[in-house]
Amino acid sequence: MKIVVLTGSPHKNGTSNTLVNEFIRGALENGNTILRFDIPFLKIHPCIGCDCCGMNGPCTFNDDMSKILDTILESDMIVLATPIYYFGFSSQIKSAIDRFYSRNGQIQSKKLKSVFIATAWNNDNQVMIAFEKHIEILIDYLNLDNVGTILAKGYGYSGASTEKEYMEEAYKLGKSI
Ligand SMILES: Cc1cc2nc3c(=O)[nH]c(=O)nc-3n(C[C@H](O)[C@H](O)[C@H](O)COP(=O)(O)O)c2cc1C
After folding, report:
1. What atom of ligand 1 comes closest to residue 88's alpha carbon?
2. What is the pLDDT at residue 149?
3. How many whole angstroms separate alpha carbon 147 and alpha carbon 132?
4. Which domains does the chain have, with CATH numbers?
5. Exposed / middle / buried, residue 89 (Cβ in 10 Å: 0-12, 13-18, 19+)
6. CB distance 88 to ligand 1 below 6 Å
7. Whose CA is nearest to atom 22 of ligand 1?
8. Paired residues of 77 in beta bridges
């Protein structure tokens, strides 16, 4: 399977990237192809809502997102990984998601498989509620076939006591693809 992975943390060796690496390790062992884009290190202008694309055409901005959109449309699965920032996606990855707008219908028609990975400092009952609801609606709206979600609470820094457990979960999820 061709899997496009979008990561949303500026910490190259941070928690969400650690889980992504484990997911990828498992997925590669099963013969999948990975195309990874570390969004915070790319040039991606936020959507300005000009509507030039009409939700189905070239975006006004010809930046790194052009290649990502082409890759998404050639893939079978999309993985979106993010640190939790104020109960949601990091602004970096949210900017990339907003740019799906110019290929909205094409993405919906693909019925892509999906995986979501999120890591948060807090370990309480509230921390993932908004994010979980957000992705539930996003999955439905984008017509995704979600095959796995890792919501890593209490995993705010590399080496946290929860790390091993979540790394194993991410590896197993990758290996199941
Ligand atoms: C701007 C910002 C907002 C954050 N908001 C939350 C939050 O709402 N809840 C939470 O538990 N942790 C929050 N955190 C902590 C991160 O989610 C947490 O440290 C995460 O593990 C970082 O992931 P990374 O290492 O992949 O960058 C925030 C951190 C930053 C920098």
Report:
1. 8
2. 98
3. 14
4. 2-175 (3.40.50.360)
5. buried
6. no
7. 83
8. 3, 113
Task: State which of 121, 124, 150 you would mutate to test the pocket of ligand 1, scoring each by most atoms of that ligand within 8 A of its C-beta.
Answer: 121
Cβ of residue 121 lying under 6 Å from some atom of ligand 1: yes
Distances (CA, A) of 95 to 21, 31, 65, 99: 22, 31, 10, 6
pLDDT single digits (tens) 65-79: 999 999 999 999 999
Confidence of residue 41 (pLDDT cuts 50, 70, 90): very high
pLDDT tens-place string over residues 71-117: 999 999 999 999 999 999 999 999 999 999 999 999 999 999 999 99
8-state DSSP, 12: T
Confidence of residue 153 (pLDDT cuts 50, 70, 90): very high
Q: Which of 16, 22, 39, 84 to mutate to test the pocket of ligand 1 (most atoms within 8 A of CB)?
A: 84
